[in-house]
Every structure is written in structure tokens, then in C-alpha cells.
Amino acid sequence: MGFTVVGPKTFLASGHPGDASADASPHLGLIRTTDGGRTWTTVSGEGVADFHAIQLAVETLYAYDSQSGQLRRSADGGETWMTGAEEPMNDLAGDRARVFVTTPQGLKVSGNGGMEFEDMANAPLLSHVESPVEDVLIGPGPDGRIHTSRDGGKSWQDGGKLPGPVTAFTAVDVQRLLAATEDGTVMESKDGGKNFAVAFRPANG
């Protein structure tokens, strides 16, 4: 499932429907809400696309389609798409000129809208990546350690450590980070990933 906030009460999502009936589409494609999640409408790709990562970078929407294994980009909010490179990515982030993706082999970057990617040799292995402002990259490693670059990936600094692998990660801004762990606990940092506190813990956690 993919999910991202693109404006006040406006979210984009993808995944699988809860209705397992024969009439239900196996893939939602891209769906949108403008009322904070009360109602949803289909934007594109119903029955075909399953976007596991969705990210708006300035005016370009990027998404990873797990069905085709390819990055896609859209200039009209997801109504129409251009197909990019095929990469086994887990997460993505973009800024005005580049798009970054996390892969099992390491962090990669594209300067041509996701058509081609190259390895970022100095980057640590990341499970997720965010770019809250230009040239800033933040993400956890597979062990939960937070890594930050403030020069577009040329150099990296280690931060605090989450209690384990992360299933979802977002940077509200450079200082406020949110991460979900495998047991459903949501951790929050207000100092750029140096320290984390529990923001939510499931009842059975």
C-alpha cells in the first residue's frame, strides 16, 4: 500500500480493497480524497496498478508500481503517467531536479525523471528515504539507525536508532520524523532523528 499527503485534507493512496468479493478489483490503482479520508475517488490505474510508494516532488508525482516493477511519473496529479526505469525499489523521494529510490543494492538517484538510475556510492543502505527540503535526505537503515545527508547525498551523518526495522517512514519537516515499526508502534522524533519517543502503541503491543 502507498499513501501520501499532497494538501490540506487531500491524500493519495493505493493498495488492495478490503472487499474480497469476486466483483472487487484486485488493485485500487491511484485513489484520492479531498475531505480527509471520508470519501475516495479513483484517479487512474484501477485493476492494473498497485503503487507501493507515492511521492509528490514539487509539481511532479512519482510512484512505484509493484505490478510492473517500474517507476512512474505524472505531471497532472496521477491522471496520466510516463513509465520510467524498472528497479526493485522499496521507497522513493524527490526534489526539484532528482528522484531517489531505496533498493536492496543501495540508494540510487536519477536526474532525468526516473528514466535511468545510478548508484549513490557514499550512501548508507536505507530502507526508506525522505527529502523534506532541497538537498536534505533522511532515512532509516535496515537496523533502524537514522542517516541524514544535508548536501544531496555527498556525505552522511548517523543519528539515533529506532528499536528495529521500519515499515513506514515520513519526514514532516527536517526536525519532525515519524516511523512505524513492525509491531505497529509509531515513533516520533522532534530533533531530526537524534531521539525518538512513542507517539502511538497498539493495544496489543
TrEMBL record:
<feature type="compositionally biased region" description="Basic and acidic residues">
    <location>
        <begin position="144"/>
        <end position="153"/>
    </location>
</feature>
<feature type="region of interest" description="Disordered">
    <location>
        <begin position="140"/>
        <end position="160"/>
    </location>
</feature>
<protein>
    <recommendedName>
        <fullName>Exo-alpha-sialidase</fullName>
    </recommendedName>
</protein>
<dbReference type="InterPro" id="IPR015943">
    <property type="entry name" value="WD40/YVTN_repeat-like_dom_sf"/>
</dbReference>
